[in-house]
Amino acid sequence: xxxxxxxxxxxxxxxxxxxxxxxxxxxxxxxxxxxxxxxxxxxxxxxxxxxxxxxxxxxxxxxxxxxxxxxxxxxxxxxxxxxxxxxxxxxxxxxxxxxxxxxxxxxxxxxxxxxxxxxxxxxxxxxxxxxxxxxxxxxxxxxxxxxxxxxxxxxxxxxxxxxxxxxxxxxxxxxxxxxxxxxxxxxxxxxxxxxxxxxxxxxxxxxxxxxxxxxxxxxxxxxxxxxxxxxxxxxxxxxxxxxxxxxxxxxxxxxxxxxxxxxxxxxxx
Length: 269
Known about the structure:
mainly alpha
């Protein structure tokens, strides 16, 4: 079957290119901030892309990196790409409208099929056309059947995406108050987890009169700025991230201890 090439407006291509470029530089700037923060917390210079030092009592006791399970930087960058709840709800509403429109269109075509079916020429032979010549599939199959085939995949994909959206929204907090800015909260939590792993301590998020104190809050502000979230207050996401660092999580951050005879001993439980 001949399928004509897709056509894209120049403005759409330029907009997509600009968005991808901006995202690339934002991710790079954020990565630099993350490694600068690790250097500050550990008291040693860490190059972007290098291993992460684990510091206890002022001394580097371990370097982590090279394996996905030890990659504590990528989760922060990935969290920044998460869609906020408002965007998820907007997408759900748009997909529902689109699904309704497609269902209406299919019903209309079914009615047309019943009315004009006798007038359709359904004769078609593969040998009667040249290579690359368009095929009138509608006349060959009939309006209703051709449309059903065309819409089936699109409607199925829409329903799958709607199901994913419902599951994703169900995981979001539904309490009263202003809805959380999901990417900001997820980034702050992943950043706090990195702080806990590097230092073995629970971070603090102190902000007073626009001033940031401590080792965590100033770097979180820099990280938000790198992502372009200059107007997002760090206090809500930062405080929630600090609360998420439990004593149990801190114990899980402790490096493995080597004992005689080549054994490994984990952190005390």
